[in-house]
Design goal:
Strand content: 15-25%
Structural class: alpha/beta
Largest sheet: 8 strands, mixed
Number of helices: 12
CATH class: Alpha Beta
C-alpha cells in the first residue's frame, strides 16, 4: 500500500527523533544498568509486601503441600520478526542508443532489455530506479532526454514499483516535461519520487510517500543536487526536492531547511524506516565532496536509515553500520545506458534487508546483498541489462545463448571492480 499523508505537527516529529536516538544508542548502556533507580517509596512498599508474603506462607504452606500442584503457565511466545527487502538500482539514461534498443515494428517494446533482471527487481518488496529523463510525444533520444511511454511500461512489468524523478533532467522539457513524466510514471503503475506537478501538490504530499508492506512502513523520499544548470520557474519552487540552495550554479549551500522539512513531514507519521534517494556527486568522478558528507549528517540527525545515491554513473563505496542499522551507498552506477564510457557499462542492484523486531518493534537495516549488472550491446546495437554472475556461468558452461568471449572478459573485469569497491562494506 502506498499513500501520501502530507505534513503534520512538530510534537510527533520530536517523538520519532527521540525513538531513533534511543534505538541507535541502545548498545551504549548495558541492559543490566537500564532499570535501576527505584524510589524509597517503592522500596518501602516492596518491603511491606515481602513481610506479608512471609506471614501468608507460614499459614498456607502446610495446607498447600497437601493439595495437587498447580499446572505451570506456558511462557508467552513473542511475535515473529517481520522482514522485507528494499531493492534499488541506478540510473536509467535516455540516449539515442537506449531509446533505439526498444524500437519495434509497431512502436517500442523494452521487454527484452530488462528481461534478465526481472527476477531481481520483482523479488523485492519495494523496487526503485532513477529515471534520468522525461516522457512525451516529441523527438526521443539524447538531445531531448525524452523517452517513449513504452519504456516506463517495461520497467513496471519488470517489477519496478517507484521511479526517482528528481534528477538532472526533471525539467528538461520545462514544467510540461516534469508533469508529463509524473503522469506517465503513474499511468505505468509506478510511483514518482521527488517531483510534483505543482507547489500545491508538494504541499499536499509533504515531499515523500509511505509504502506499507509486510507489516513495515517505509517512508521514501528523493532529492536532486540540481537540474543540469536549469532553475525552477517562479511559482514552482517546490515542484522538485532539492539538496542545495544554489542548485543551478555551484552546489555549495546545502538546503538544510528543504531537506529537514521533507524528512520531518515523513517522520511525523511514525514510519518504521526512512530511505532517502539522492541524485548527487560528480559525473564520472569518484570524489566524495564535503557537502555530500554534510548532507549525510543532516539525514542521519533526522533519523533516516538508508541513503542511496545515483548520478556519478560509477559504482561507488558503500557503508553499513550493522550496530546502528544504517546504510549508505554513494552511487549504484548505471542501470540502463550506452555503457560506452569507461566504468559505465556496469552497475549494481542493491537489496537491503529491513527487519522489524517482533518483541520490541525496533526496525532497522539488518543486512544487504547486491546483484552486479552489465550492459551488453548485441549485434543489432540493442542494449540489454544482464546479471553478471549468471551470464558468466552460462558462458563457462557453454550454454547455447551465452554471451561472447569478449563480453565474458569484460564482465569478469567489471565484477572484480565492483567487488573491490563494495566488499569492505560488509
Amino acid at each position: 500500500m502506498v499513500y501520501n499523508v502530507g505534513s503534520t505537527n512538530e510534537e510527533a516529529v520530536m517523538a520519532f527523533r527521540k525513538k531513533r536516538i534511543k534505538q541507535r544508542g541502545r548498545n551504549a548502556v548495558p541492559e543490566q544498568y537500564r532499570r535501576k533507580g527505584k524510589s524509597k517509596k517503592g522500596l518501602f512498599i516492596a518491603g511491606g509486601a515481602l513481610l506479608l508474603c512471609v506471614i501468608a506462607a507460614c499459614i498456607l504452606v502446610p495446607k498447600l503441600l497437601s493439595q495437587q500442584s498447580a499446572v505451570p503457565t506456558e511462557p508467552t511466545t513473542p511475535p515473529p520478526d517481520k522482514v522485507i527487502h528494499f531493492v534499488a538500482g541506478g540510473d536509467v539514461n535516455i540516449t539515442d542508443k537506449t531509446v533505439a534498443s526498444g524500437a519495434a515494428n509497431a512502436g517500442y517494446d523494452y521487454t527484452e532489455a530488462f528481461k534478465d533482471v526481472l527476477p531481481v527487481l520483482s523479488g523485492g518488496d519495494v523496487a526503485t530506479l532513477n529515471f534520468e529523463g522525461v516522457v512525451g510525444t516529441g523527438s526521443y533520444g539524447s538531445a531531448t532526454k525524452m523517452a517513449p511511454q513504452a519504456m516506463l511500461e517495461a520497467l513496471s512489468a519488470a517489477g519496478v514499483d517507484a521511479l526517482q524523478t528528481a534528477n538532472s533532467y526533471s525539467i528538461y522539457d520545462g514544467l510540461r516535461g516534469l508533469r508529463n513524466t509524473v503522469q506517465g510514471v503513474q499511468n505505468a503503475g509506478m510511483t514518482p519520487l521527488g517531483t510534483y506537478a505543482t507547489n500545491a501538490e508538494f504541499d499536499s504530499a509533504g515531499g515523500y510517500v509511505i509504502w506499507e508492506v509486510g507489516g513495515i512502513k517505509v517512508a521514501l523520499m528523493a532529492f536532486t543536487k540540481g537540474m543540469d544548470g536549469m532553475g525552477l520557474p517562479a511559482g514552482s519552487e517546490r515542484c522538485v526536492n532539492l539538496l542545495y540552495e544554489d542548485y543551478s550554479s555551484t552546489y555549495q549551500k546545502v538546503n538544510r531547511a528543504g531537506i529537514t522539512k521533507v524528512v520531518r513531514n515523513a517522520a511525523a507519521h511514525q514510519p518504521d524506516v526512512m530511505v532517502a534517494l539522492v541524485h548527487w556527486g560528480s559525473e564520472f568522478n569518484d570524489q566524495i565532496s564535503k557537502s555530500q558528507k554534510k548532507i549525510c549528517e543532516i539525514f542521519w540527525e533526522e533519523g533516516v536509515d538508508a541513503i542511496i545515491g545515483t548520478h556519478p554513473h560509477y559504482v561507488q563505496k558503500m557503508e553499513f553500520d550493522r550496530e546502528k542499522g544504517t546504510f549508505l551507498a554513494y552511487s549504484l552506477g548505471d542501470f540502463f545506458g550506452d555503457g560506452e564510457a569507461a566504468g559505465t557499462n556496469y552497475g549494481v542492484i542493491l537489496d537491503l534487508e529491513i527487519t522489524k523486531d517482533g518483541a520490541t518493534g525496533e526496525t532497522k537495516v539488518t543486512g544487504f546483498e547486491y546483484t552486479p549488472t552489465f550492459l551488453e550491446t548485441d549485434e543489432n546495437g540493442k542494449v540489454r541489462v544482464l546479471r553478471i554472475r549468471e551470464a558468466m556461468a552460462g558462458y563457462e558452461n557453454r550454454y547455447l545463448d551465452c554471451v561472447s568471449e569478449e563480453t565474458y572478459l569484460e564482465m569478469k573485469t567489471a565484477l572484480e571492480r565492483i567487488e573491490s569497491r563494495i566488499g569492505a562494506a560488509k
